[in-house]
């Protein structure tokens, strides 16, 4: 059991405006514990990074961890495991396992917070967190670990502090080509495409030089995750939105950034503001560096951003969607005369006509023992397959325009099909991405930098909504 007197760092991290530097300085001093090893594994168990700080564990500790984590049942594995007096604490990001071991009993939330910051630093310094980027920048990551930990004790996780000591240059996984003229118009004029940053624009190393494509840029992402449960009668049973405003700064110096939100933005059940459409959330929290003097009156966030990525604001809205859910399903499940199971799905996208959902995946659980599948899909770009191991049919839609309606007919061979077997169909779950769309309606009015930068910096704002859990009962 973890000692109760080591749980307090989690409460600090959950505070509305926790201080990153204060937590870093007090984590090890209060817990009095240390990290034995840090290593990174691929999803297949390949050893990418391994650093032993104290020599307390056997050399086969990596294989022991991988065998333990792959033998767990279910998709969500516990983050804390133990073996022969050694505790394994891990997170999974970018398809990689980031693991720390300890022979003592620190707060697991403390180690998880350290691993999350370690993963964030890899994104800052290497551009992205993936197996390829880790392999290409292993020397840089080892140098980071040497500066972050001293004999297993955490020293710092600050990007601003580490950049004074890191000497190894990052290797970009996708070098910029000077012969890429896709965004250049006639006689060098800007095209419409040149006004939109590619999705990989913010996935470059923090210390990238100008000849490697480095620019004075600021990226602001408004990211929302949607959780929805719709009953078999089409009634919305549960709705929850978790959102955040994330800033990634590539400016060498910036004393202050001002981010203007909707004037109609309100928190809680308070009186609505402004004259436009209401934008309401239930709860809101801010990074400790955010200054809120102008927030109550003008909905302006002021922050002195450090280089790298940081979440400046998080918010939540429960049991209330400002608009209709993005997808509505009309299912029919029956048995035909030849004894096959027929599943007819009609899926409608209720987004505005100029919007579209990307990478839509529909998962339909089917009766165990289903042998084969034949399908009729409404367009040739869609695909469907039956995976017997997961007992489900997967329907993939690359792009789903707003206002459109698609359909699919699945015919399954199920030995011994009965009325009870029909009850095994469903519930249907969807995963998708909604670019240029927020379900709450939160928008960035302006993004201003001071003082004026040498050379006009480019400022990019992106909106995206992901499905966290979207379930429809049938």
- Contiguous low-pLDDT stretches (5 residues minimum) are 1-32, 175-194, 209-213
Discrete helix count: 9
Shape: globular
> How many strand elements?
25
Proportion of beta-strand residues: 35-45%
What order do the strands of the largest sheet run in, or round the barrel if closed?
A: 13-15-9-8-25-23-18-21-20
Largest sheet, if any?
9 strands, mixed
Cα(first) to Cα(last) distance is 42 Å
Which whole number gives the mean pLDDT?
82
Structural class of the helix and strand makeup?
alpha+beta
Rg computed from alpha carbons, rounded to a whole number of angstroms: 25 Å
User: Into which percent range does the helicity of residues fall?
Assistant: 10-25%
Task: Give a structural overview.
Mean pLDDT is 82; it is low at 1-32, 175-194 and 209-213. With 474 residues, this protein is an alpha+beta fold. The protein is built from nine helices and 25 strands. Helix content is 16%, strand content 38%. The chain has helices spanning 8-13, 20-31, 61-70, 108-126, 131-136, 138-148, 159-162, 295-298, 419-422, and strands at 37-41, 47-52, 80-83, 86-93, 96-102, 149-150, 153-154, 217-230, 236-249, 256-261, 265-267, 279-281, 283-286, 300-303, 308-318, 327-335, 341-349, 356-365, 372-377, 383-387, 392-401, 405-413, 428-435, 444-450, 458-472. β1 (37-41) and β2 form a beta hairpin. 27% of the residues are buried. The strands form six sheets. A nine-stranded mixed beta sheet has the order 13-15-9-8-25-23-18-21-20, with helices on one face. It has a five-stranded antiparallel beta sheet with strand order 2-1-5-4-3, with helices on both faces. Strands 16-17-22-19 form a four-stranded antiparallel beta sheet, with no helix packed on it. The two termini are 42 Å apart.
């Amino acid at each position: 059991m973890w000692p109760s007197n080591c749980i307090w760092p989690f409460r600090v991290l959950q505070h509305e405006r926790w201080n990153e530097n204060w937590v870093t300085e007090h984590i090890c001093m209060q817990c009095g514990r240390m990290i034995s090893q840090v290593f990174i594994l691929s999803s297949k168990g390949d050893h990418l990074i391994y650093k032993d700080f104290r020599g307390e564990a056997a050399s086969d500790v990596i294989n022991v961890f991988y065998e333990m984590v792959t033998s767990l049942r279910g998709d969500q594995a516990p983050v804390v495991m133990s073996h022969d007096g050694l505790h394994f604490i891990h997170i999974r990001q970018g398809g990689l396992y980031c693991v720390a071991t300890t022979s003592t009993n620190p707060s697991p939330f403390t180690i998880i917070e350290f691993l999350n910051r370690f993963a964030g630093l890899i994104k800052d310094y290497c551009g992205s967190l993936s197996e390829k980027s880790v392999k290409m920048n292993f020397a840089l990551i080892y140098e980071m670990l040497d500066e972050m930990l001293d004999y297993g004790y955490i020293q710092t996780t600050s990007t601003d502090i580490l950049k004074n000591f890191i000497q190894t240059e990052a290797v970009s996984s996708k070098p910029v080509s000077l012969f890429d003229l896709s965004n250049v118009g006639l006689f060098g004029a800007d095209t419409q495409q040149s006004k939109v940053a590619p999705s990989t624009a913010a996935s470059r190393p923090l210390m990238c030089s100008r000849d490697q494509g480095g620019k004075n840029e600021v990226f602001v992402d408004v990211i929302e995750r949607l959780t929805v449960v719709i009953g078999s009668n089409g009634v919305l049973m549960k709705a929850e939105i978790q959102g955040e405003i994330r800033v990634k700064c590539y400016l060498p110096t910036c004393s202050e950034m001002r981010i203007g939100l909707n004037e109609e933005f309100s928190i809680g059940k308070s009186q609505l503001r402004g004259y436009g459409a209401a934008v309401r959330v239930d709860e809101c929290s801010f990074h400790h560096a955010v200054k809120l003097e102008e927030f109550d009156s003008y909905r302006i966030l002021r922050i002195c951003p450090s280089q790298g990525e940081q979440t400046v604001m998080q918010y939540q809205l429960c049991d209330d969607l400002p608009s209709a859910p993005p997808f509505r399903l009309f299912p029919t499940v029956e048995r035909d005369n030849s004894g096959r199971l027929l599943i007819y799905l009609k899926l409608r996208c209720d987004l505005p006509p100029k919007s579209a959902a990307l990478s839509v995946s529909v998962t339909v659980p089917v009766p165990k023992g289903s042998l084969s599948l034949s399908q009729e899909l409404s367009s040739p770009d869609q695909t469907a397959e039956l995976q017997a191991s997961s007992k489900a049919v997967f329907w993939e839609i690359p792009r789903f325009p707003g206002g459109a309606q698609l359909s699919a007919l699945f015919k399954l061979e199920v030995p011994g099909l009965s009325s009870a077997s029909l009850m095994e169909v469903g519930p249907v779950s969807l995963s998708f991405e909604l670019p240029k769309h927020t379900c709450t309606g939160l928008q960035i009015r302006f993004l201003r930098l001071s003082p004026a930068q040498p050379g006009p910096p480019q400022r990019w704002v992106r909106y995206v909504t992901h499905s966290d859990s979207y379930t429809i009962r049938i």
